[in-house]
Amino acid sequence: MTSLLIRNARIGDDAPADILIRDGKIAEIARDIAADGVPVENADGHIAIAGLVDAHTHLDKSLLGWPWYKNDVGGASLMAMIENERAMKKKLGIDPHVQSMRHALKSVAFGATLIRSHVDIDTEGGLRALEGVMQTAEKLADVVEIETVAFPQSGLMIREGTVELMDQALAMGADLVGGLDPCGVDRDPKGHLDAIFALAEKHGKGIDIHLHERGELGLFSMEMILDRAEALAMKGLVTISHAFCLGMPDYHRTEPMLARLAAMDVRIMTTAPSSSPAPLVKQLDAHGIKLGAGNDGIQDTWGPYGNGDMLERAKIVGQRNNLRMDSEVKRALDVCSGGGAEAMAKPRRALEAGAPGDVVLVEGETVVQAVVSHAPRRLVVKGGHVTARDGKTLVEAP
User: Fold this and answer.
1) Residue 21 to residue 192: CA distance in whole angstroms
2) DSSP characters for 49-86?
3) Which among 273, 205, 213, 215 has a CA at the least distance from the CA of 239?
4) Residues 343, 55: contact at Cβ < 8 Å?
5) Cβ contacts of 71 within 8 Å, gap of 6 or more
6) In the chain, what's the furthest Cα-to-Cα distance?
7) CATH for 52-343, among 3.40.50.2300, 3.40.50.10470, 3.40.1280.10, 3.20.20.140?
8) β-strand partners of 292
9) Which of 176, 234, 260, 256 lies closest to 210 in space, CA to CA?
10) Domain locations along the chain
11) Reported pTM
12) pLDDT for the residue numbered 1
């Protein structure tokens, strides 16, 4: 963390002002700030927004830097894609540190200052993926904050020895306990959820569980998750990613669940998918549920899409949720910035005194125009430290 003075930046849609960052935090936003001895960057009237947050991605999976991957599996089934990915990572000899560096730095170039990465833990790869991502997190500590989730992508109960590896991963420093479709993948919801909550209790960690299960099956799993969260007094410590079941059209089924999620301060992470039902921003907001968003995996064996740009993801969140008014589009941006940080239980990214000194300068007439055109990033600042200029990171990717 360091100090920096950004002069002549438009604060959102407001008039230009200076932003003073001291010791990694925003100290003041005002006109003509005097700060002798502090490095200066001239924003030249570009729009300043708070640092972007990718609250759900997979840094160890991307094939960035490799020859184009021909996908012959597609969306056949979840298990088919999981098995294909495991086989291809071994066949290609993927280096998790190299790939996570490439992915993380690409996200930084687009303005990311905070990332939560789910990292595969399985009996074939062992802890190698986590070791690689943790190495990247350490190397890029001044560039982007990376939080890790120990994630049993290949299943927990169906692959003997995975629970023990998860235990080791958490002891090694993984920040959160992950989980995956306790009915659809493990076909043992009680065993799966008992195991991940026991790990969370043992290591004093929170939980972030992938829940792709739709409709009534998803609500059933969600109820079991909440039962355990309540029994272990884990209010505010549980995140459910994807949560497709909350997008089911039966209002009478989802409303009681949303109220229960709110009471336990469960956080929701979405990718705003076009091909699946998804939690709706306005519904979650009505209950005060903290919501973040992420790019998920980008350009990997699962699919060719994605580029690491959370400003583009804000546009997708807006489109998926029919957010049309300027105030609504700004809410979509917040889901991909300050709101995402809050959902991660991190300090809110915001252009205000006391907030982290994470600032992104973008082109455009207004903030909303910058979102819908996912405008070029002129400058990215993390904790007062310049990390990217004109779409290029100052640290070179391997």
Assistant:
1) 45
2) EEPEEEEEE-TTT--TTSSPPP-S-TTS-HHHHHHHHH
3) 205
4) yes
5) 301, 303, 304
6) 63
7) 3.20.20.140
8) 269
9) 176
10) 4-50+352-387, 52-343
11) 0.97
12) 58
Rounded distance between C-alpha atoms, residue 271 and residue 254, angstroms:
19
H runs (alpha helix) in 173-248: 189-203, 215-231
pLDDT, tens digit (0-9, with 9 covering 90-100), for 341-367: 999 999 999 999 999 999 999 999 999
Alpha carbon distances (Å) from 217 to 181, 211, 273: 10, 10, 19
Give the homologous superfamily in CATH for domain 4-50+352-387: Urease, subunit C, domain 1 (2.30.40.10)
Q: Give tens-digit pLDDT for 4-14.
A: 999 999 998 99
> Please, what's the b/e burial string for 115-141 (b: 16 or more CB within 10 A of its CB; e: otherwise)?
bbbbbbbbeebebbbbbbbbebbeebe
Within its chain, how far is the Cα of 148 from the centroid? Answer: 10
**How far is residue 158 from each of residues 23, 154, 222, measured CA to CA in Å?**
48, 8, 20
Q: What is the pLDDT of residue 91?
A: 86
Q: Dump pLDDT digits (tens) for 76-135.
A: 788 888 888 888 888 888 999 999 999 999 999 999 999 999 999 999 999 999 999 999
Using DSSP's 3-state secondary structure scheme, residue 383 falls into coil
Confidence of residue 292 (pLDDT cuts 50, 70, 90): very high
| 100, two tokens | 């996570």
What does the alpha-carbon distance between residue 180 and residue 146 come to, in Å, rounded to a whole number? 21
Separation of alpha carbons 341 and 114, rounded Å: 8
Q: Please tell me the predicted confidence (pLDDT) of residue 259.
A: 98
156: number of Cβ within 10 Å: 27
